[in-house]
UniProtKB/TrEMBL annotation:
Listed InterPro entries: 2-oxoA_DH_lipoyl-BS, 2-oxoacid_DH_actylTfrase, 2-oxoacid_DH_E2_comp, Biotin_lipoyl, CAT-like_dom_sf, E3-bd_dom_sf, PSBD, Single_hybrid_motif
Keywords carried by this UniProt record: Acyltransferase, Lipoyl, Pyruvate, Transferase
UniProt feature, compositional bias: Basic and acidic residues: 109-123
Similarity remark: Belongs to the 2-oxoacid dehydrogenase family.
GO cellular component, one term: cytoplasm
Cofactor(s) the protein needs: (R)-lipoate
Region (Disordered): 87-145
GO molecular function: acetyltransferase activity; lipoic acid binding
Record has Plastid as a keyword: no
UniProt protein name: Dihydrolipoamide acetyltransferase component of pyruvate dehydrogenase complex
Keyword Transferase part of the UniProt annotation: yes
Amino acid sequence: MSAAGEGAVRSFLLPDLGEGLTDAEIVQWLVAVGDTVAVDQPVAEVETAKAAVQVPCPFGGTVAELHGGAGDTVAVGEPLVSVRTGADAPAAEGGGADSGAVLVGSGTRPERPSRRLPRRDAAGEVPPATASAAPPRPRPATGERAPVISPLVRRIAREHGIDAAALAGSGDGGVVLRRDVEAAVAAGSRPPAGGPDGAPDAAERVSLTAPHREMARRMARSRREIPEATVWVDADATGLLELRTAVDGAAPERPVGLLGLLARFCVLGLARFPALNSRFDPEREELLRPAGVHLGFAAQTPRGLVVPVVHDAHTMTARELAAEIAALTEAARAGTLPPDRLRGGTFTVNNYGVFGVDGAAAVINHPEAAIAGVGRIVERPWAHGGELVLRPVTELTLAFDHRVCDGAEAGAFLRFLADCVERPAALLGDM
Protein backbone atom coordinates (compact mmCIF):
# COMPACT_ATOMS: atom_id res chain seq x y z
CA MET A 1 0.00 0.00 0.00
CA SER A 2 1.45 3.34 -1.01
CA ALA A 3 1.76 6.26 1.34
CA ALA A 4 -0.50 8.29 -0.98
CA GLY A 5 -3.39 6.03 0.00
CA GLU A 6 -3.19 6.91 3.71
CA GLY A 7 -5.07 9.66 5.51
CA ALA A 8 -8.13 11.74 4.77
CA VAL A 9 -8.77 13.77 1.64
CA ARG A 10 -9.55 17.44 2.26
CA SER A 11 -10.77 19.78 -0.45
CA PHE A 12 -9.45 23.32 -0.48
CA LEU A 13 -12.28 25.58 -1.66
CA LEU A 14 -11.63 28.56 -3.92
CA PRO A 15 -11.51 31.46 -1.43
CA ASP A 16 -13.30 34.76 -1.59
CA LEU A 17 -10.95 36.90 -3.66
CA GLY A 18 -12.50 40.15 -2.49
CA GLU A 19 -14.20 43.12 -4.24
CA GLY A 20 -17.41 41.14 -4.86
CA LEU A 21 -15.80 38.65 -7.25
CA THR A 22 -17.71 35.37 -7.56
CA ASP A 23 -15.40 33.18 -9.64
CA ALA A 24 -11.94 32.89 -11.13
CA GLU A 25 -10.36 31.26 -14.16
CA ILE A 26 -7.52 28.78 -13.68
CA VAL A 27 -4.47 30.15 -15.49
CA GLN A 28 -2.09 27.35 -14.58
CA TRP A 29 -1.53 24.72 -11.95
CA LEU A 30 1.61 25.02 -9.87
CA VAL A 31 1.33 21.41 -8.63
CA ALA A 32 0.32 18.05 -10.10
CA VAL A 33 -1.47 14.98 -8.73
CA GLY A 34 0.94 13.08 -6.50
CA ASP A 35 3.01 16.14 -5.59
CA THR A 36 3.56 16.94 -1.96
CA VAL A 37 2.58 20.44 -0.83
CA ALA A 38 3.58 22.34 2.27
CA VAL A 39 1.35 24.58 4.32
CA ASP A 40 0.78 27.92 2.52
CA GLN A 41 2.38 26.69 -0.69
CA PRO A 42 0.77 28.26 -3.80
CA VAL A 43 -1.01 25.53 -5.76
CA ALA A 44 -2.59 27.46 -8.63
CA GLU A 45 -2.52 30.76 -10.41
CA VAL A 46 -6.02 32.09 -11.08
CA GLU A 47 -7.27 35.17 -12.87
CA THR A 48 -10.26 37.27 -11.84
CA ALA A 49 -11.80 40.33 -13.41
CA LYS A 50 -9.31 42.37 -11.36
CA ALA A 51 -5.96 40.58 -11.47
CA ALA A 52 -4.05 37.31 -11.58
CA VAL A 53 -3.08 35.88 -8.18
CA GLN A 54 -1.44 32.77 -6.80
CA VAL A 55 -3.60 30.86 -4.34
CA PRO A 56 -1.85 29.19 -1.36
CA CYS A 57 -3.24 26.00 0.19
CA PRO A 58 -3.78 26.25 3.98
CA PHE A 59 -2.72 22.68 4.74
CA GLY A 60 -0.03 20.28 3.64
CA GLY A 61 -0.21 16.80 2.19
CA THR A 62 -0.23 14.95 -1.13
CA VAL A 63 -2.24 16.29 -4.06
CA ALA A 64 -5.09 13.85 -4.71
CA GLU A 65 -7.13 15.71 -7.32
CA LEU A 66 -7.13 18.95 -9.32
CA HIS A 67 -10.64 20.25 -9.85
CA GLY A 68 -10.39 21.67 -13.34
CA GLY A 69 -7.83 22.49 -15.96
CA ALA A 70 -6.24 25.62 -17.37
CA GLY A 71 -8.98 27.84 -18.77
CA ASP A 72 -11.73 26.41 -16.56
CA THR A 73 -13.75 28.71 -14.33
CA VAL A 74 -14.23 27.83 -10.66
CA ALA A 75 -16.86 29.49 -8.47
CA VAL A 76 -15.95 30.88 -5.06
CA GLY A 77 -16.65 28.19 -2.44
CA GLU A 78 -16.21 25.29 -4.87
CA PRO A 79 -13.32 22.77 -4.58
CA LEU A 80 -10.09 23.90 -6.19
CA VAL A 81 -7.71 21.12 -5.15
CA SER A 82 -8.02 18.02 -2.95
CA VAL A 83 -5.12 17.08 -0.70
CA ARG A 84 -4.59 13.82 1.16
CA THR A 85 -3.40 14.56 4.66
CA GLY A 86 -2.21 12.27 7.44
CA ALA A 87 0.87 10.88 9.07
CA ASP A 88 2.57 10.22 5.75
CA ALA A 89 1.81 13.63 4.28
CA PRO A 90 4.37 16.42 4.71
CA ALA A 91 2.37 18.98 6.69
CA ALA A 92 4.36 21.88 8.00
CA GLU A 93 1.98 22.51 10.85
CA GLY A 94 1.16 19.09 12.18
CA GLY A 95 -0.52 16.98 9.52
CA GLY A 96 -2.62 19.52 7.68
CA ALA A 97 -3.59 22.13 10.25
CA ASP A 98 -4.98 25.27 8.70
CA SER A 99 -2.43 28.05 8.56
CA GLY A 100 -4.63 31.10 8.17
CA ALA A 101 -2.43 32.32 5.32
CA VAL A 102 -5.05 31.93 2.58
CA LEU A 103 -7.34 34.51 1.08
CA VAL A 104 -10.47 36.02 2.56
CA GLY A 105 -13.31 33.54 3.05
CA SER A 106 -11.30 30.45 2.14
CA GLY A 107 -12.54 27.09 3.27
CA THR A 108 -11.61 23.47 3.51
CA ARG A 109 -13.85 20.44 3.33
CA PRO A 110 -12.86 17.11 4.88
CA GLU A 111 -13.80 14.22 2.63
CA ARG A 112 -13.75 10.42 2.77
CA PRO A 113 -12.09 9.91 6.18
CA SER A 114 -9.74 6.93 6.05
CA ARG A 115 -10.99 3.67 7.60
CA ARG A 116 -7.75 1.81 6.92
CA LEU A 117 -5.71 0.26 9.69
CA PRO A 118 -2.40 1.89 10.58
CA ARG A 119 0.51 0.78 8.44
CA ARG A 120 2.84 -1.66 10.19
CA ASP A 121 6.46 -2.46 9.63
CA ALA A 122 7.91 -5.88 8.75
CA ALA A 123 7.76 -6.96 12.39
CA GLY A 124 4.10 -6.06 12.61
CA GLU A 125 4.68 -3.02 14.82
CA VAL A 126 3.11 0.37 14.31
CA PRO A 127 5.94 2.90 13.88
CA PRO A 128 5.82 6.14 15.92
CA ALA A 129 3.91 8.97 14.28
CA THR A 130 7.02 11.07 14.19
CA ALA A 131 9.02 8.46 12.33
CA SER A 132 7.65 9.42 8.91
CA ALA A 133 7.24 13.13 9.54
CA ALA A 134 9.36 15.42 7.43
CA PRO A 135 12.12 17.11 9.41
CA PRO A 136 11.20 20.67 10.32
CA ARG A 137 12.83 23.42 8.35
CA PRO A 138 15.26 25.51 10.36
CA ARG A 139 14.03 28.90 11.51
CA PRO A 140 15.94 31.89 10.14
CA ALA A 141 18.99 32.88 12.10
CA THR A 142 19.06 36.14 14.01
CA GLY A 143 19.33 39.06 11.62
CA GLU A 144 17.98 37.09 8.64
CA ARG A 145 14.71 38.05 6.98
CA ALA A 146 11.86 35.59 7.46
CA PRO A 147 10.48 33.94 4.30
CA VAL A 148 7.06 35.00 3.02
CA ILE A 149 5.53 32.44 0.64
CA SER A 150 2.02 33.76 0.04
CA PRO A 151 1.52 36.71 -2.34
CA LEU A 152 -1.62 37.53 -0.37
CA VAL A 153 0.35 37.86 2.86
CA ARG A 154 2.76 40.22 1.15
CA ARG A 155 -0.12 42.27 -0.24
CA ILE A 156 -1.93 42.59 3.12
CA ALA A 157 1.29 43.66 4.78
CA ARG A 158 2.03 46.20 2.05
CA GLU A 159 -1.47 47.71 2.32
CA HIS A 160 -0.92 48.29 6.05
CA GLY A 161 2.62 49.61 5.72
CA ILE A 162 4.21 46.53 7.31
CA ASP A 163 7.43 44.84 6.22
CA ALA A 164 6.24 41.23 6.40
CA ALA A 165 9.75 39.80 6.19
CA ALA A 166 10.70 41.74 9.32
CA LEU A 167 8.05 39.94 11.41
CA ALA A 168 8.64 36.80 13.47
CA GLY A 169 6.89 34.13 11.40
CA SER A 170 4.91 31.44 13.22
CA GLY A 171 4.92 29.01 10.30
CA ASP A 172 7.28 26.11 9.72
CA GLY A 173 10.81 27.39 9.30
CA GLY A 174 9.74 30.85 10.37
CA VAL A 175 7.42 31.40 7.40
CA VAL A 176 5.35 34.55 7.88
CA LEU A 177 1.65 33.67 7.74
CA ARG A 178 -1.43 35.79 7.33
CA ARG A 179 -2.21 35.57 11.04
CA ASP A 180 1.23 37.03 11.81
CA VAL A 181 0.50 40.09 9.68
CA GLU A 182 -3.01 40.45 11.09
CA ALA A 183 -1.62 40.30 14.61
CA ALA A 184 0.86 43.04 13.75
CA VAL A 185 -1.95 45.16 12.28
CA ALA A 186 -4.12 44.67 15.37
CA ALA A 187 -1.25 45.58 17.66
CA GLY A 188 -0.38 48.65 15.61
CA SER A 189 3.08 47.18 15.04
CA ARG A 190 5.31 48.76 12.43
CA PRO A 191 8.84 47.46 11.86
CA PRO A 192 11.38 50.27 11.95
CA ALA A 193 11.74 52.19 8.70
CA GLY A 194 14.15 54.78 7.47
CA GLY A 195 17.92 54.70 7.59
CA PRO A 196 20.21 51.79 8.44
CA ASP A 197 20.16 52.70 12.13
CA GLY A 198 16.41 52.00 12.21
CA ALA A 199 15.45 55.59 12.99
CA PRO A 200 12.15 56.48 11.31
CA ASP A 201 12.20 59.19 8.68
CA ALA A 202 10.77 62.49 9.85
CA ALA A 203 7.47 63.34 8.16
CA GLU A 204 5.11 66.25 8.51
CA ARG A 205 1.36 65.70 8.41
CA VAL A 206 -0.48 68.39 6.49
CA SER A 207 -4.25 68.69 6.87
CA LEU A 208 -6.16 69.12 3.63
CA THR A 209 -8.90 71.64 3.10
CA ALA A 210 -12.40 70.31 2.41
CA PRO A 211 -12.21 71.21 -1.31
CA HIS A 212 -8.85 69.45 -1.55
CA ARG A 213 -10.24 66.33 0.13
CA GLU A 214 -13.26 66.34 -2.18
CA MET A 215 -11.00 66.78 -5.21
CA ALA A 216 -8.84 63.87 -4.04
CA ARG A 217 -11.88 61.64 -3.66
CA ARG A 218 -13.23 62.57 -7.07
CA MET A 219 -9.91 62.09 -8.82
CA ALA A 220 -9.33 58.72 -7.15
CA ARG A 221 -12.83 57.55 -8.06
CA SER A 222 -12.36 58.72 -11.64
CA ARG A 223 -9.15 56.73 -12.00
CA ARG A 224 -10.77 53.64 -10.44
CA GLU A 225 -13.96 53.63 -12.49
CA ILE A 226 -13.36 55.38 -15.82
CA PRO A 227 -11.29 53.74 -18.60
CA GLU A 228 -10.04 56.99 -20.02
CA ALA A 229 -7.98 57.78 -23.09
CA THR A 230 -6.41 61.07 -24.19
CA VAL A 231 -6.04 62.65 -27.63
CA TRP A 232 -4.34 65.92 -28.47
CA VAL A 233 -3.65 68.19 -31.42
CA ASP A 234 -1.65 71.36 -32.07
CA ALA A 235 -3.48 74.32 -33.57
CA ASP A 236 -2.46 77.65 -35.07
CA ALA A 237 -4.03 80.19 -32.69
CA THR A 238 -3.60 83.24 -34.94
CA GLY A 239 -7.29 83.39 -35.80
CA LEU A 240 -8.31 82.89 -32.17
CA LEU A 241 -6.14 85.75 -30.93
CA GLU A 242 -7.38 88.05 -33.70
CA LEU A 243 -11.00 87.27 -32.82
CA ARG A 244 -10.43 87.86 -29.12
CA THR A 245 -8.86 91.24 -29.85
CA ALA A 246 -11.76 92.23 -32.08
CA VAL A 247 -14.52 91.05 -29.74
CA ASP A 248 -13.01 92.45 -26.56
CA GLY A 249 -12.21 95.73 -28.33
CA ALA A 250 -15.84 96.09 -29.37
CA ALA A 251 -17.09 95.79 -25.77
CA PRO A 252 -14.16 96.12 -23.35
CA GLU A 253 -16.52 96.28 -20.38
CA ARG A 254 -17.68 92.73 -21.20
CA PRO A 255 -14.55 90.84 -22.31
CA VAL A 256 -14.87 87.30 -23.61
CA GLY A 257 -11.32 86.08 -23.16
CA LEU A 258 -9.80 82.82 -24.31
CA LEU A 259 -11.72 80.62 -21.84
CA GLY A 260 -15.06 82.14 -22.88
CA LEU A 261 -14.29 81.42 -26.52
CA LEU A 262 -13.12 77.88 -25.80
CA ALA A 263 -16.26 77.25 -23.73
CA ARG A 264 -18.40 78.31 -26.67
CA PHE A 265 -16.41 76.07 -29.02
CA CYS A 266 -17.02 73.11 -26.69
CA VAL A 267 -20.76 73.76 -26.56
CA LEU A 268 -20.91 73.81 -30.36
CA GLY A 269 -18.83 70.63 -30.55
CA LEU A 270 -21.02 68.77 -28.07
CA ALA A 271 -24.06 69.52 -30.20
CA ARG A 272 -22.31 67.60 -33.00
CA PHE A 273 -20.88 64.85 -30.79
CA PRO A 274 -23.40 64.38 -27.94
CA ALA A 275 -21.84 61.14 -26.64
CA LEU A 276 -19.15 63.23 -24.96
CA ASN A 277 -21.87 65.12 -23.08
CA SER A 278 -23.27 61.90 -21.55
CA ARG A 279 -22.27 59.61 -18.75
CA PHE A 280 -22.01 55.83 -18.59
CA ASP A 281 -24.36 53.82 -16.37
CA PRO A 282 -22.32 50.72 -15.42
CA GLU A 283 -25.27 48.84 -13.89
CA ARG A 284 -27.44 48.93 -17.01
CA GLU A 285 -24.58 49.49 -19.46
CA GLU A 286 -26.34 52.46 -21.02
CA LEU A 287 -25.51 56.08 -21.75
CA LEU A 288 -27.40 58.76 -19.83
CA ARG A 289 -27.63 61.78 -22.10
CA PRO A 290 -28.95 65.06 -20.63
CA ALA A 291 -31.13 67.47 -22.58
CA GLY A 292 -28.57 70.28 -22.45
CA VAL A 293 -24.97 71.15 -21.67
CA HIS A 294 -23.99 72.01 -18.10
CA LEU A 295 -20.42 73.16 -18.51
CA GLY A 296 -17.93 72.82 -15.68
CA PHE A 297 -14.62 74.67 -15.65
CA ALA A 298 -11.58 74.29 -13.41
CA ALA A 299 -11.02 77.24 -11.07
CA GLN A 300 -8.03 77.60 -8.76
CA THR A 301 -8.93 79.19 -5.41
CA PRO A 302 -7.02 79.85 -2.16
CA ARG A 303 -8.81 76.82 -0.70
CA GLY A 304 -7.99 74.48 -3.56
CA LEU A 305 -9.21 73.45 -7.00
CA VAL A 306 -12.98 73.54 -7.57
CA VAL A 307 -15.15 72.99 -10.64
CA PRO A 308 -18.05 75.47 -10.82
CA VAL A 309 -20.81 74.60 -13.29
CA VAL A 310 -22.46 76.90 -15.84
CA HIS A 311 -25.94 75.44 -16.10
CA ASP A 312 -27.67 75.47 -19.50
CA ALA A 313 -24.49 76.63 -21.23
CA HIS A 314 -26.02 75.62 -24.58
CA THR A 315 -28.43 78.57 -24.33
CA MET A 316 -25.68 81.20 -23.94
CA THR A 317 -23.54 83.19 -26.34
CA ALA A 318 -19.77 83.37 -25.91
CA ARG A 319 -20.08 86.72 -24.15
CA GLU A 320 -22.74 85.39 -21.76
CA LEU A 321 -20.64 82.31 -21.04
CA ALA A 322 -17.62 84.49 -20.27
CA ALA A 323 -19.65 86.66 -17.89
CA GLU A 324 -21.04 83.64 -16.05
CA ILE A 325 -17.59 82.05 -15.78
CA ALA A 326 -16.17 85.26 -14.35
CA ALA A 327 -18.97 85.58 -11.78
CA LEU A 328 -18.67 81.96 -10.65
CA THR A 329 -14.88 82.22 -10.41
CA GLU A 330 -15.14 85.31 -8.22
CA ALA A 331 -17.67 83.61 -5.94
CA ALA A 332 -15.54 80.47 -5.70
CA ARG A 333 -12.46 82.44 -4.68
CA ALA A 334 -14.48 84.41 -2.12
CA GLY A 335 -15.93 81.18 -0.69
CA THR A 336 -19.53 82.26 -1.42
CA LEU A 337 -20.33 79.84 -4.25
CA PRO A 338 -23.64 77.98 -3.58
CA PRO A 339 -23.28 74.18 -3.40
CA ASP A 340 -25.68 73.67 -6.32
CA ARG A 341 -23.21 75.51 -8.57
CA LEU A 342 -20.65 72.79 -7.94
CA ARG A 343 -22.94 69.95 -9.03
CA GLY A 344 -24.60 68.67 -12.16
CA GLY A 345 -21.82 69.18 -14.69
CA THR A 346 -21.92 67.18 -17.93
CA PHE A 347 -18.61 68.30 -19.48
CA THR A 348 -15.57 70.20 -18.20
CA VAL A 349 -13.16 72.61 -19.85
CA ASN A 350 -9.81 73.64 -18.43
CA ASN A 351 -7.38 76.39 -19.40
CA TYR A 352 -4.18 74.93 -17.96
CA GLY A 353 -2.13 77.27 -20.14
CA VAL A 354 -2.46 79.86 -17.35
CA PHE A 355 -0.02 77.69 -15.37
CA GLY A 356 2.59 77.97 -18.12
CA VAL A 357 2.31 74.40 -19.39
CA ASP A 358 1.90 73.25 -22.98
CA GLY A 359 -0.32 70.24 -22.39
CA ALA A 360 -1.80 67.91 -19.81
CA ALA A 361 -3.52 64.53 -19.63
CA ALA A 362 -6.34 65.75 -17.40
CA VAL A 363 -8.38 63.52 -15.08
CA ILE A 364 -12.07 63.35 -15.98
CA ASN A 365 -14.41 64.92 -13.45
CA HIS A 366 -16.46 61.88 -12.36
CA PRO A 367 -19.16 60.99 -13.44
CA GLU A 368 -18.72 63.03 -16.62
CA ALA A 369 -17.42 61.48 -19.82
CA ALA A 370 -14.81 63.97 -20.98
CA ILE A 371 -12.68 67.02 -20.19
CA ALA A 372 -11.12 69.36 -22.78
CA GLY A 373 -8.15 71.60 -22.18
CA VAL A 374 -5.98 74.23 -23.82
CA GLY A 375 -2.31 74.89 -23.14
CA ARG A 376 -0.31 78.07 -23.33
CA ILE A 377 0.01 79.88 -26.64
CA VAL A 378 3.63 80.21 -27.75
CA GLU A 379 5.37 81.01 -31.01
CA ARG A 380 6.61 77.93 -32.83
CA PRO A 381 7.80 77.12 -36.35
CA TRP A 382 4.67 76.38 -38.41
CA ALA A 383 4.07 75.58 -42.08
CA HIS A 384 1.87 78.37 -43.44
CA GLY A 385 1.28 79.35 -47.06
CA GLY A 386 4.00 77.01 -48.25
CA GLU A 387 6.60 78.53 -45.93
CA LEU A 388 7.96 77.78 -42.48
CA VAL A 389 7.15 80.76 -40.28
CA LEU A 390 6.70 81.54 -36.60
CA ARG A 391 3.05 81.34 -35.56
CA PRO A 392 1.26 81.37 -32.16
CA VAL A 393 0.50 77.69 -31.50
CA THR A 394 -1.45 76.00 -28.74
CA GLU A 395 -2.07 72.40 -27.80
CA LEU A 396 -5.64 71.15 -27.35
CA THR A 397 -6.32 67.94 -25.42
CA LEU A 398 -9.33 65.77 -24.72
CA ALA A 399 -9.51 63.03 -22.08
CA PHE A 400 -12.59 60.87 -22.64
CA ASP A 401 -14.35 57.82 -21.21
CA HIS A 402 -13.70 55.07 -23.73
CA ARG A 403 -16.99 53.43 -22.79
CA VAL A 404 -19.07 56.27 -24.26
CA CYS A 405 -17.36 56.52 -27.65
CA ASP A 406 -14.36 55.35 -29.62
CA GLY A 407 -11.28 57.27 -30.64
CA ALA A 408 -12.76 58.31 -34.00
CA GLU A 409 -15.59 60.31 -32.41
CA ALA A 410 -13.32 61.79 -29.75
CA GLY A 411 -10.77 62.73 -32.40
CA ALA A 412 -13.45 64.32 -34.57
CA PHE A 413 -14.63 66.45 -31.64
CA LEU A 414 -11.10 67.61 -30.91
CA ARG A 415 -10.50 68.34 -34.60
CA PHE A 416 -13.62 70.51 -34.56
CA LEU A 417 -12.21 72.47 -31.60
CA ALA A 418 -8.94 72.93 -33.48
CA ASP A 419 -10.82 74.20 -36.55
CA CYS A 420 -12.64 76.69 -34.31
CA VAL A 421 -9.32 77.90 -32.93
CA GLU A 422 -7.83 78.29 -36.42
CA ARG A 423 -10.98 79.64 -38.18
CA PRO A 424 -13.22 80.94 -35.38
CA ALA A 425 -15.12 83.58 -37.38
CA ALA A 426 -16.41 80.94 -39.80
CA LEU A 427 -17.54 78.47 -37.14
CA LEU A 428 -18.45 80.42 -34.01
CA GLY A 429 -21.80 81.80 -35.17
CA ASP A 430 -23.75 84.08 -32.85
CA MET A 431 -21.49 85.67 -30.23
